[in-house]
Amino acid sequence: MSKNHESDVAFIKALAELLRENDLSELEVSRAYGEDDSLDVRVARQMVAAPAPSAPIQVSAPQPVQPAAPTPAAPSAPTDDPAQDPGAVTSPMVGTVYLSPEPGAAPFVQVGDTVSEGQTILIVEAMKTMNQIPAPRGGKVTRILVEDGAPVEYGAPLVILS
User: Fold this and answer.
1) For residues 90 and 83, what is the distance between their CA atoms, to the nearest angstrom?
2) Domain ranges of the chain
3) Which portions of the chain have biased composition (kind: Pro residues) (predicted)?
4) Which of 6, 19, 100, 107 has the greatest number of C-beta atoms within 10 Å?
5) How far apart are CA 137 and CA 114, in angstroms?
6) What separation, in Å, do the N-terminal and C-terminal C-alpha atoms of the chain show?
7) pLDDT in tens, the chain (162 residues)
8) Beta partners for 37?
9) DSSP character string of 48-110
């Protein structure tokens, strides 16, 4: 740890708060103070699964199941989870998403635009590197699921193409 112990502790606490507020699982930062003085911090939290039941589970003999009356299927209803949509373009990394090449510029794509395979649809910044995210296939942009400047996790849905 650097010679700036108190400010480092405050910095680490701020990173932990940022992690919690944005529901991130991990954050890594390097902070240089001078030629021979730096601070490398990795803050991570373990995502907790639902707790296991504390009482033993009672298992009874299987009962015959009455078939339910068939329900009519909704005609191609959109899925509740955008990540499960077959047209979802997901984030290949953890970072910050940007919808335009620079502040104040027109966005790469808007809802209703038709894109071709390989066309840049947005940028994900990770470790101060701007990574252009290309359309995996051609199609029409039906939804943009992220806001400009928002943090994203690996695998988070960004855009829906049809």
Assistant:
1) 7
2) 5-44, 82-161
3) 64-75
4) 19
5) 11
6) 50
7) 445 667 777 777 777 777 777 777 777 777 777 777 777 777 776 655 555 555 555 555 555 555 555 544 444 445 567 777 888 999 999 999 999 999 999 999 999 999 999 999 999 999 889 999 999 999 999 999 999 999 999 999 999 999
8) 34
9) PPPPPPSSPPP--PPPPPPPPPP-PPPTTPPPSSGGGSTTEEE-SSSEEEESSSSTTSPPS--
pTM (two decimals): 0.51
Residue 105 tokens, joined: 């510029």
Architecture of domain 82-161: Beta Barrel (2.40)
Residues 47-56: contacts with CB under 8 Å, at least 24 apart? none
* Alpha-carbon span 79 to 74, nearest angstrom: 11
Q: How many CA atoms lie within 13 A of 10 on its CB side?
A: 4
Tokens linked to 142 = 């039906």
